[in-house]
């Protein structure tokens, strides 16, 4: 083995023989090897080892492609997923930025208004809690298909959405009437918020879910509760989407069944069994996702969405009793204190932000200014020539 | 000549010819890889074909970030490790990590015995270098080792082999 005063480490020597050194190091090693007998001997030994290892040769493979390889080649393959492009990333960033803006706006508006989110009022809560958990609709009003239940699509499937804005003189009574109406129709409240600002009228917004076949009756009942400011209705036909989903779900179930049969029959290699199990897991994941999507469709079709905004007519109240003199004085004192603290804070802020710059300039200008001042005062004090 | 990576991408797009070309290029090297590490030629043949089956099944996930050669030998090493585990379970008394090919000549027998005396990682490094002709970087990738470790352990393995093969050399010279 080369001793420590060699400019080339033994590992470098072997890397040189394998052609794994960069050109500059290879040149140094080559130069050294030409002069050093010890390294030459080691290099010859190592090359000899490599040569002798080649004595171990194996016979050629003689079999053709196996049937399962041929089958795998013949099976249709998915195209590779393209990696995310720069443009895609840009879109992701823009969407994230937009999302962040929306969140900020929401936070800002939430802090600028006093919004009270109340629990569901008792009749509606009662109606909601008494609904069956599996499909979310009372038995008397018809029901959604159960998970996994096969279904045929007859006639158009429509998702209905309505918006209604009402004005009322008494918000509390109107809301109670709306809750009663909703419970009677078998609907439920999906979301509700009440706004109670001090200096304007109260209002509340709610998103209601009403059985689709009760929508018209519910809307006419709702209109009777106040003055209709605006109203709109939308219908989206989802028959095609649901039909496609049903077909894909049926195919996935058939694939799952076939794979399960294959798994129960296979008794050979563990790797094959694991591969089939992995495929079954993937197919089951897809089935679960599609079942969830179908349930979402079913719910949106069976229950129409009604977005209601009810505002109260605002009547500015007269101030009957003027505030007392002591209260006014106290308020003035508080205001004065606030102003004092505020102005001190502004001065402190100004000094902190501009203080370092002012100090530097003062230090720079101090001596020239003092010299000027002295000259000016001396000239003033000097006796005028006669 | 078309590169392995270009062939792999063509195969990804559905070209059967590209696969046949890759199979022709790597059939013997992969068979040799398994044959030198396993006793049974049938299992070596099976695992060689299994390697290509994995390639076919994982075609859509292939991305040309690494050499196809590195990709293939990484798969081959995983399949080999699985095979050795299986063998160890079925016959717990026998050592599963010895290179186990019936050697055809005295020189081959000496080489096999000398390799069997090496530490398993050093043996794998030296075999990947000498028989599979992988570069240091490729060996580092497939064995997940730093390149410098590969370099130093390869040196150690070769120096040990020099010692182990010495009696054989003397014997051959006397003969």
Write structural notes for this entry.
The complex is a heterodimer of chains A (386) and B (175). Chain A contains 11 helices and 6 strands. Chain A has 386 residues and is α+β, with helices and mostly antiparallel strands. A 6-stranded mixed β-sheet of chain A has the order 1-3-4-6-2-5. In chain B, helix 6 packs across helix 8 (147-164). Chain B is globular and about 55 Å long. Chain B is built from 9 helices and no strands. The interface between A and B is large, with 38 and 57 residues.
Question: Main traits of this protein?
Answer:
heterodimer, A: 386 residues, alpha+beta, six-stranded mixed beta sheet, 13% strand, B: mainly alpha
Number of strands of chain A: 6
- Structural class of chain A comes to alpha+beta
SSE arrangement of chain A, N to C = HHHHHEHEHEEHEHHEH
Radius of gyration of chain A: 42 Å
Could you give a quick summary of the protein structure above?
Chain A is an alpha+beta fold and 386 residues long. Chain A has helices spanning 10-17, 23-35, 37-53, 67-74, 86-112, 122-129, 171-185, 215-223, 239-265, 270-302, 325-381; strands spanning 115-116, 158-168, 188-195, 203-211, 227-237, 303-312. In chain A, strands 1-3-4-6-2-5 form a six-stranded mixed β-sheet.
Topology:
The complex is a heterodimer of chains A (386) and B (175).
Chain A: H1 10-17, H2 23-35, H3 37-53, H4 67-74, H5 86-112, E1 115-116, H6 122-129, E2 158-168, H7 171-185, E3 188-195, E4 203-211, H8 215-223, E5 227-237, H9 239-265, H10 270-302, E6 303-312, H11 325-381
Parallel strand pairs in A: 2-6
Antiparallel strand pairs in A: 1-3, 2-5, 3-4, 4-6
Helix pairs in contact in A: 1-3, 6-7, 7-8, 9-10
Chain B: H1 4-12, H2 16-35, H3 41-57, H4 68-90, H5 106-116, H6 120-130, H7 136-143, H8 147-164, H9 166-174
């Amino acid at each position: 083995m080369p001793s420590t005063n060699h400019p080339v480490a033994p590992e470098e020597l072997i890397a040189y023989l394998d052609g794994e050194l960069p050109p500059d190091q290879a040149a140094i090693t080559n130069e050294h090897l030409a002069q050093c007998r010890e390294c030459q001997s080691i290099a010859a030994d190592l090359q000899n080892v490599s040569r002798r290892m080649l004595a171990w040769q194996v016979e050629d493979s003689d079999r053709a492609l196996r049937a399962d390889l041929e089958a795998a080649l013949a099976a249709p393959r998915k195209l590779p997923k393209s990696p995310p492009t720069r443009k895609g990333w840009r879109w992701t960033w823009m969407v994230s930025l937009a999302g962040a803006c929306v969140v900020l706006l929401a936070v800002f508006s939430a802090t600028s208004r006093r919004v009270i989110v109340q629990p569901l009022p008792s009749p509606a809560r009662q109606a909601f809690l008494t609904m069956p958990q599996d499909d979310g609709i009372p038995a008397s009003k018809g029901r959604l298909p159960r998970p996994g239940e096969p279904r045929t699509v007859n006639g158009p499937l429509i998702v209905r959405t309505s918006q209604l804005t009402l004005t009322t003189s008494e918000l509390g009574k109107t809301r109670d009437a709306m809750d009663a109406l909703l419970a009677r129709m078998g609907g439920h409240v999906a979301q509700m918020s009440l706004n109670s600002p001090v200096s304007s009228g109260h209002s509340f917004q709610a998103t209601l879910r009403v059985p689709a076949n009760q929508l018209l009756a519910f809307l006419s009942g709702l209109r009777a509760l106040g003055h209709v400011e605006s109203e709109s209705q939308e219908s989206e036909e989802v028959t095609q989407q649901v039909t496609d989903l049903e077909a894909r779900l049926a195919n996935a179930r058939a694939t799952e069944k076939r794979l399960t049969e294959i798994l129960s029959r296979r008794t050979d290699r563990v790797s094959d069994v694991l591969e089939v199990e992995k495929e079954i897991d993937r197919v089951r994941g897809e089935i679960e996702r599609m079942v969830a999507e179908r349930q979402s469709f079913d719910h949106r079709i069976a229950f129409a969405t009604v977005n209601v905004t009810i505002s109260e007519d605002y009547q500015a109240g007269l101030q009957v009793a003027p505030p007392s003199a002591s209260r006014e004085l106290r308020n003035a004192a508080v205001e004065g204190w606030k102003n004092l603290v505020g102005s001190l804070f502004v001065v402190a802020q100004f000094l902190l932000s501009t203080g370092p710059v002012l100090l530097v300039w003062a230090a720079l200008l101090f001596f020239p200014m003092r010299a000027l001042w002295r000259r000016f005062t001396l000239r003033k004090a000097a006796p005028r020539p006669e | 000549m078309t590169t392995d990576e270009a062939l792999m991408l063509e195969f990804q797009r559905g070209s059967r010819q590209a696969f046949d070309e890759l199979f022709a290029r790597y059939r013997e090297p992969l068979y040799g890889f398994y044959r030198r590490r396993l006793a049974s030629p049938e299992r070596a043949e099976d695992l060689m074909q299994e390697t290509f089956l994995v390639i076919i099944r994982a075609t859509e996930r292939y991305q040309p970030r690494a050499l196809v050669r590195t990709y293939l030998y990484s798969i081959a090493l995983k399949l080999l490790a699985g095979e050795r585990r299986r063998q160890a379970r079925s016959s717990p008394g026998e050592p599963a990590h010895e290179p186990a090919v019936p050697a055809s000549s005295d020189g081959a027998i000496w080489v096999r015995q000398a390799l069997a005396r090496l530490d398993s990682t050093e043996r794998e490094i030296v075999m990947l270098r000498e028989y599979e002709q992988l570069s240091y970087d490729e060996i580092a990738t497939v064995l997940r080792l730093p390149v410098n470790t590969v370099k130093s352990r390869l040196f150690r393995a070769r120096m040990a082999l020099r010692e182990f093969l010495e009696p054989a050399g003397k014997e051959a010279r006397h003969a």
